[in-house]
């Protein structure tokens, strides 16, 4: 419909002797439904070119539009908007398509044949998966599902830092903690997976704290030595330093086993969140290639700076100088990121590569992609970094820190689920329900929706009490809308033919408002996918939920006459399908009964 309306407007404009192209005409869904189903501001954009008042030009454009039975009326509103109201017949026809086609109705073909790799989550083994990783996972999974709705072949990738100073700090801290607490590594191996990973996380915090004590140079030297040792096991070209069998036993075994514990633990979180990755990349796998890329381009792209190798950025272009090989001869994140981009390109042959991280890494990626443009311009052109904001508590504090005082993702998931269970008990929502399963789905919906309803890039204020509420702009509220539709439909034996919709005159304003709200779903799902903007979809689903709630309070579906009742049941099925598909694209599972 958007393309059709744009063409109608273009034909009218051209007939008035004003020059315009189809791409100039932006047709959108207005924020206020009272202003129509679609609107365009083309008259205001062309007013200066035509030398006419925007309202006058808009009226001229409308007078030349040749309509059909899909359009009920067209209005001109100051300062020059053209608003389109679709006919009941058209809206009901679209509603019929939703009922008949279900998921297929909300699929598109704008990216059919395109290969897209989306990299997200990117936790570091030997450190806790915190709320920042949780947020990145939630955003990335929604991005992946939205791009799949456009017909793209999407590959999900996860890049994990299994080498680096944080690993060395953990291994050093682990040795000291075991010594101080009188615990052996064999005893730790007997712990549950969660407790093993937690012990490693505590070891990282301890090691990091000791490393940052500037007066204790010995600790820093020991940790730097461990760091080099682990790197050397993954980068054969590094000059080797002598290591005894004792060191092999002391560090390599703990590194290998600890790494696997963390990876296994991360999978338990991914399973709860509904994410399955196609590719796992590791810093240890791209360190050698990254180092070679830098060394091979010293003098052309990079320059020697003492014992380090740097890329000298141009400040006037917003590019600052960054180190690509440090003074120990080890590749930095930047060098490994270069090798990762090339490795992904070779494995996946992508048309588009999207990396999602916190906004603090935006300057870093700007430099990396600038370097990549000099090594492989095609891959650089196809690469995109989408930064997101941070999660804050209601008092404005950041939920996380590099010192380790972060909010553990597992703890957040658990705390929210416990609160949901309390609310379910208090509201008598537990009869005949699998409380653990339902409360987990509701709690994950609460977190995902609270994160995704805010535009990606902005900071998020996460208020647990508001996010778990069963009314208001929340995930649980949307689940309730879906389950309410489901419960009504389950109470009847069957739903009639959707063809009945074509004969219905929508005299009831609540019914017509709901039909119009459903009719906006396809366009807004498309806009959400094309713009990598889950918040657009969240806003739409909440509006749909509100309109449905108003309808539900004013229209007695099961008490209506037989023919009208059939129509209303079909309307509920369309609401239910639209809500389910929309929630799925946010990575949220529905609950059949609440």
What is the helix fraction of residues, given as a range? 40-55%
Largest sheet, in brief, is: 5 strands, parallel
The proportion of strand residues reads 5-15%
Shape: globular
Total beta strand runs: 14
Instruction: Return Rg in Å.
Output: 29 Å
Number of helical segments?
A: 22
Give start-end ranges of low-pLDDT stretches.
Answer: 401-406
The structure class reads alpha/beta
Q: Give the termini distance in whole angstroms.
A: 36 Å
* Lateral strand order in the biggest sheet: 7-6-5-11-12
Q: What is the overall pLDDT average?
A: 90
Compact summary:
This protein has 22 helices and 14 strands.
Structure description:
This protein is of the alpha/beta class. It is built from 22 helices and 14 strands. The protein has helices at residues 2-15, 42-50, 54-63, 88-101, 131-149, 165-181, 185-189, 193-211, 217-234, 245-273, 283-296, 333-348, 362-375, 377-382, 409-426, 435-452, 464-467, 475-490, 509-519, 521-530, 534-554, 562-585, and strands at 27-28, 38-40, 71-77, 81-86, 115-119, 153-160, 279-282, 303-305, 308-311, 322-325, 352-358, 383-388, 391-392, 460-461. The protein has a five-stranded parallel β-sheet, with helices on both faces. A hairpin with a 3-residue loop joins strand 3 and strand 4. Helix 4 packs across helix 22 and helix 21 runs antiparallel to helix 22.
């Amino acid at each position: 419909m958007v393309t059709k309306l744009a063409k109608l407007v273009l034909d009218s404009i051209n007939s008035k002797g004003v020059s315009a192209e189809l791409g100039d005409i932006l047709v959108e869904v207005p924020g206020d439904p009272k202003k129509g189903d679609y609107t365009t501001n083309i008259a205001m954009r062309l007013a200066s070119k035509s030398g006419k008042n925007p309202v006058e030009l808009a009226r001229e454009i409308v007078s030349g539009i040749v309509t059909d039975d899909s359009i009920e009326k067209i209005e001109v509103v100051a300062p020059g908007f053209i608003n389109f109201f679709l006919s009941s017949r058209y809206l009901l026809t679209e509603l019929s398509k939703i009922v008949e086609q279900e998921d297929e109705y909300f699929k598109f073909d704008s990216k059919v044949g395109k290969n897209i790799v989306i990299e997200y989550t990117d936790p570091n083994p030997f450190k806790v998966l915190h709320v920042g990783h949780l947020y990145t996972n939630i955003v990335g999974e929604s991005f992946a599902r939205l791009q799949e709705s456009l017909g793209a072949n999407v590959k999900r990738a996860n890049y994990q830092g299994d080498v680096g100073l944080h690993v060395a700090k953990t291994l050093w801290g682990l040795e000291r903690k075991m010594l101080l607490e009188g615990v052996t590594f064999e005893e730790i191996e007997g712990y549950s997976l969660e407790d093993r990973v937690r012990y490693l996380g505590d070891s990282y915090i301890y090691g990091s704290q000791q490393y940052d004590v500037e007066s204790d140079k010995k600790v820093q030297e020991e940790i730097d030595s461990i760091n080099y040792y682990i790197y050397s096991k993954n980068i054969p070209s590094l000059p080797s330093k002598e290591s005894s069998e004792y060191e092999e036993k002391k560090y390599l075994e703990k590194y290998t086993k600890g790494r696997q514990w963390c990876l296994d633990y991360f999978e338990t979180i991914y399973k709860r969140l509904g994410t399955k990755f196609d590719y796992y990349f590791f810093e240890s796998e791209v360190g050698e290639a990254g180092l070679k890329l830098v060394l091979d381009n010293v003098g052309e792209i990079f320059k020697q700076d003492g014992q380090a190798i740097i890329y000298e950025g141009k400040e006037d272009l917003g590019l600052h100088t960054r180190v690509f090989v440090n003074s120990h001869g080890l590749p930095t994140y930047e060098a490994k990121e270069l090798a990762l981009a090339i490795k992904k390109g070779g494995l996946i042959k992508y048309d588009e590569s999207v990396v999602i991280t916190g906004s603090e890494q935006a300057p870093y990626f700007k430099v990396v992609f600038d370097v990549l443009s000099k090594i492989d311009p095609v891959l650089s052109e196809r690469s995109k970094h989408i930064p997101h904001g941070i999660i804050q508590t209601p008092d404005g504090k950041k939920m996380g820190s590099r010192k380790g005082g972060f909010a553990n993702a597992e703890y957040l998931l658990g705390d929210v689920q416990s609160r949901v269970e309390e609310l379910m008990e208090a509201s008598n929502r537990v009869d005949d329900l699998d409380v653990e399963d339902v409360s987990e789905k509701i709690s994950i919906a609460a977190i995902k929706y609270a994160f995704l309803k805010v535009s990606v890039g902005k900071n998020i204020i996460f208020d647990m009490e508001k996010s778990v509420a069963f009314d208001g702009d929340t995930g649980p509220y949307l689940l309730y809308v879906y389950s309410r539709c489901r419960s009504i439909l389950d109470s009847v034996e069957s739903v009639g033919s959707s063809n009945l919709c074509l004969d219905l005159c929508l005299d009831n304003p609540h019914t017509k408002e709901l039909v119009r709200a459903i009719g906006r779903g396809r366009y807004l799902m498309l806009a959400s996918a094309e713009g990598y903007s889950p918040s657009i979809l969240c806003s739409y689903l909440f509006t749909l939920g509100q309109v449905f709630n108003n309808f539900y309070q004013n229209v007695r579906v099961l008490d209506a006459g037989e023919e009208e009742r059939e129509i209303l049941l079909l309307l509920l099925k369309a609401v239910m399908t639209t809500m389910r598909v929309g929630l799925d694209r946010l990575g949220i599972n529905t609950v059949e009964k609440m």
